[in-house]
Specification:
Length: about 190
């Protein structure tokens, strides 16, 4: 019998790229409200693991259940709404402004009252004065702050964080830690 408190359950997860095994029969359970950090060198498969869990990369074989739902076979909008992904890629568009980027993602999540939510998040990440700035004009740390706002936009209960502290100054690190500790979220963070 499966433990209902396991919000992320992975069994024998394998991902190969040609002859390279990025993931080799990974088993993992993360329970509601747990914060798990996986540490390993570059090339160890950490980002691949997050990508597979998020549905951005198709596994070669294995099982993934998110909140009891088969995340490989039954992927739908409801499942995507439960996950926030902060990747090594920002998934932000350089030729759009900060506000346009977040509005685009709010539309994808069909969020009501998104303008107010966006303004609150931009204030929280210390970027309220950059709403009209084009993404391509921002520093790496600023982009990381906006990517965090994008990740939190739909208030997901599951966070998948790939080296989230990269490019952040000490104030931004404190802000990120506040975000991570404010709610009962399930968090999987990978770093080297």
């Amino acid at each position: 019998m499966e433990d209902p408190s396991a919000i992320i359950r992975i069994k024998r997860l394998t991902k190969t790229y040609g002859r390279v095994r990025a993931l080799d029969r990974v088993d993992l359970e993360i329970h509601r409200g747990e914060f798990l950090t996986i540490v390993g060198p570059n090339g160890a498969g950490k980002s691949t693991l997050l990508g597979v869990i998020a549905g951005l990369i198709r596994p070669t074989r294995g099982e993934i259940k998110l909140d009891g739902v088969d995340a490989i076979q039954d992927r739908d909008d409801g499942l995507a709404r439960k996950i926030g992904v902060l990747s090594n890629r920002s998934y932000l568009y350089n030729d759009l402004t900060v506000f346009e980027n977040l509005t685009f993602y709010a539309t994808l999540y069909d969020l009501e009252g998104s303008e107010q939510t966006i303004r609150v998040l931009l204030d929280r990440v210390g970027m309220a004065d950059q709403t009209d700035s084009l993404m391509k004009t921002l520093s790496r740390g600023m982009k990381q702050r906006i990517a965090l706002a994008r990740t939190m936009l739909h208030d997901p209960p599951i966070l998948l964080l790939d080296e989230p502290y990269v490019g952040l100054d000490q104030d931004a690190v404190t802000m990120l830690q506040d975000f991570l500790s404010e709610k009962q979220r399930t968090i999987l963070l990978v770093t080297h």
